[in-house]
Design a protein that fits this description.
Largest sheet: none
Strand content: under 5%
Distance between the termini: 36 Å
Number of helices: 3
Number of strands: 0
Structural class: mainly alpha
Number of domains: 1
Shape: elongated
């Protein structure tokens, strides 16, 4: 985990806005974010090394995240 990631890890919240208090859950969530960051950084670097525009790759990653839907989300 780089220094920038440590600064930007969110306070994880439940759907009612209360912070998640279980340390194991927080640990898993933080590890997931760190793994996603590393994977995205690798994809960006690969793309740039293959001659792609960095901003286009970032835009594609943003679009991917925007399309995600939680399969177990509570319907309101």
């Amino acid at each position: 985990m780089n220094a920038e990631t440590r600064k930007t890890l969110p306070v994880w919240r439940q759907s009612d806005g209360k912070p998640v208090s279980c340390l194991e859950k927080i640990k898993v969530l933080n590890q997931n974010i760190q793994e996603i960051e590393a994977l995205c950084a690798d994809a960006l670097e690969d793309g740039v090394l293959m001659g792609c525009d960095a901003e286009q790759i970032k835009a594609a990653l943003h679009e991917l995240v925007d399309r995600l839907a939680a399969q177990h989300a509570k319907k309101v």
